[in-house]
Design brief:
Blueprint: E1 2-5, E2 8-9, E3 12-13, E4 20-23, E5 29-31, E6 35-39, H1 58-68, E7 76-80, E8 83-87, E9 91-93, E10 97-101, E11 107-111, E12 119-121, E13 126-133, E14 138-141, H2 147-152, E15 160-167, E16 170-175, E17 178-181, E18 184-187, E19 191-192, E20 201-210, E21 221-229, E22 233-237, E23 250-261, E24 265-270, E25 281-290, E26 295-300, E27 304-313, E28 317-322, E29 326-330, E30 333-335, E31 339-344, E32 346-355, E33 363-367, E34 378-382, E35 389-396, E36 402-406, E37 419-425, E38 427-436, E39 460-463, E40 467-474, E41 479-481, E42 486-487, E43 494-495, H3 497-516
Parallel strand pairs: 6-7, 7-10, 8-11, 9-12, 10-13, 11-13, 12-14, 13-15, 14-24, 15-25, 24-26, 25-27, 26-28, 27-29, 27-30, 28-31, 29-38, 30-38, 31-39, 38-40
Antiparallel strand pairs: 1-4, 2-3, 4-5, 16-19, 16-23, 17-18, 17-23, 18-22, 20-21, 20-23, 21-22, 32-33, 32-37, 33-36, 34-35, 34-37, 35-36, 40-41, 41-42, 42-43
Length: 517
């Protein structure tokens, strides 16, 4: 078998160590599985991108990959060697291009400006084996200017992000103690890093001692910088733009001041940033997100995702869906942070119609629909009733009329001709989800070994028609099927409204039968 070099693809000249065609003994061309380019910290962007002549930056590798792929016709892999890559962001991963890190532990990518987005995704692209870090905007998204489809075509093969770690907390300055004068602080001992700016977040750790006091101070507290004189002093507040915290003059012995850039959003799926012919989706797997006070996954405007083994830690919100978006989570975890899963609101009006006859017991016959039949994944709203009701089944009566059955108990009787409207719901379906100390805060102090206190009510939040369907286990081992069925691990008892209703439905016939005797 002979190896024949392929020196030009799509007008892009490449080295013989990048692409080869294999010809068997019968003369049949057996093309290798993918074209490959290489990036390494000892490379040069003037190189060809071969394994022995790698590029220096991911930016150069992705640009060459787009040309080599003939604008997405061929599949191209950009392999990134171990190292830290500080890149001019944002970068677009063009159609059918794979960005492949050597492994998630050894390849670190960060923007030169932390406020810049990192990667914009397109049709059929793939990301594997990298750590994204030190950013305050968004790591993975569609281009927010709407150019994704206009430039690169519809997203009919959803981008795939796999085996990625996100870490956004950026230590900016460290002071082992400070001097306080009525709300202002100045350095009194060794400091590292630049002076904080207005809007920076400050994490103060340790037990306060010395001659100064801070009113209502608690260890592991985050404050905002609301005023600063570089190199001299700064003023803190509990909220951005709020009043200064109250302090007395003196030295804050025992405290450590750490100034960080917190936040960052790992994955944003905005359905409005791709055209109507696109999937509006990204596929996600094996992603660990340590974004202190940031967000793990955010879907909006009918965005869609299927996700497996997603782990969010220290995030303000683990997963947030709104405006008619939908995600399935399988074997995922929300650890510490403020909130776990949030589904808020509904999408645009899908269709509306009028009731036929009198509707009772949660069953509605509807016709005169404005935009075809309602969908199963919609929620229904009855005129004059602010509640959004979840659809259980939709049964065609004829081409223009449908029977709609809702899941909730509905005791009202509504007359014929009542308007009912259907909206795509914001929905999370989470199977085998784990909640660990959710509500314990966005710092390491929320971990159990440091005394983190969870807030059960923060695990799942449904507002304005949003729906979260889940099975879960928490840090106590308690098992839930939604919010209405809970098995307590310690006591072995079962509680919840759904359980009681089911038990009542099962036992009532027996009770009535016994009473009749």
């Amino acid at each position: 078998m002979a190896v024949k070099p392929l020196n030009s693809v799509g007008g892009y000249t490449v080295g013989t160590d990048i692409i080869t065609d294999v010809i068997d003994s019968a003369g049949t061309l057996l093309r290798t599985s993918a074209y490959t380019l290489y990036v390494a910290t000892n490379g040069n962007d003037a190189n060809e991108g071969g394994i022995n002549s790698p590029f220096l930056t991911i930016e150069a590798g992705l640009a060459a990959a787009y040309t080599l792929s003939s604008s997405g016709v061929h599949s191209v892999s950009v392999h990134v060697a171990p190292g830290t890559y500080v890149e001019n962001m944002p970068l677009t991963i063009t159609p059918n291009v794979a960005l492949m890190g050597d492994n998630v532990r050894s390849v670190h990518v960060q923007p030169s400006n932390p406020a810049d987005d990192m990667f914009y995704l397109t049709n059929g692209c793939y990301i594997w084996g990298i750590t994204v870090q030190q950013y305050t905007s968004t790591a993975f998204s569609y281009n927010p200017d709407g150019s994704t489809c206009a430039t690169y075509g519809s997203v009919y093969v959803s981008p795939y992000i796999q085996n990625v770690t996100s870490y956004t907390t950026i230590p900016v300055l460290h002071m082992s103690s400070a001097t306080s004068t009525t709300g202002q602080f100045s350095a009194s001992s060794i400091q590292t890093g630049p002076w904080p700016e207005v809007g920076d977040k400050v994490l103060i750790t340790g037990q306060l001692s010395g001659t100064a006091t801070i009113t209502d101070y608690f260890p592991e507290t985050i404050y905002y910088v609301i005023a600063t004189t570089p190199g001299e002093n700064f003023t803190l507040s509990e909220t951005l733009g709020g009043p200064a915290i109250t302090t007395t003059s003196g030295t804050t012995v025992g405290l450590t001041f750490n100034y960080y850039v917190f936040g960052g959003l790992c994955v944003k799926i905005d359905g409005d940033q791709v055209n109507a012919y696109s999937t509006k989706a990204m596929i996600l797997g094996f992603i660990t997100i340590l974004n202190q006070n940031g967000t793990g996954l955010y879907l909006l405007n009918a965005g869609y995702s299927q996700a497996v083994n997603i782990y969010t830690l220290y995030c303000n919100v683990g997963v947030l869906v709104e405006s008619g978006s939908f995600i399935t989570l399988n074997a995922c975890d929300c650890g510490v942070g403020n909130y776990g899963l949030i589904a808020d609101g509904v999408g645009a009006l899908q269709t509306s119609g009028s009731t036929v006859g009198t509707s009772t017991a949660g069953t509605f016959v509807v016709n005169s629909l404005t935009d075809g039949q309602p969908f199963v994944n919609t929620v229904m709203q009855v005129a004059g009733d602010p509640t959004y009701y979840t659809i259980d089944t939709i049964i065609p009566v004829n081409a223009l009329t449908y029977t709609v059955v809702i899941q909730q108990i509905y005791n009202e009787t509504i007359p014929p001709g009542t308007t009912v409207s259907f909206y795509t719901r914001s929905s999370i379906i989470a199977s085998a989800h784990t909640f660990e100390y959710v509500g314990a805060g966005v710092t390491y102090a929320g971990l159990p070994q440091y005394g983190g206190i969870p807030i059960e009510a923060n695990e799942v939040i449904m507002t304005n028609g949003g729906v979260v369907t889940f099975t879960s286990t928490d840090q106590k081992g308690n098992f839930k099927v939604g919010q209405g069925f809970v098995i307590n691990q310690a006591t072995g008892t079962i509680t919840g409204n759904d359980f009681y209703q089911s038990l009542f439905a099962q036992m009532t016939p027996f009770i009535l039968a016994l009473g009749s005797n």
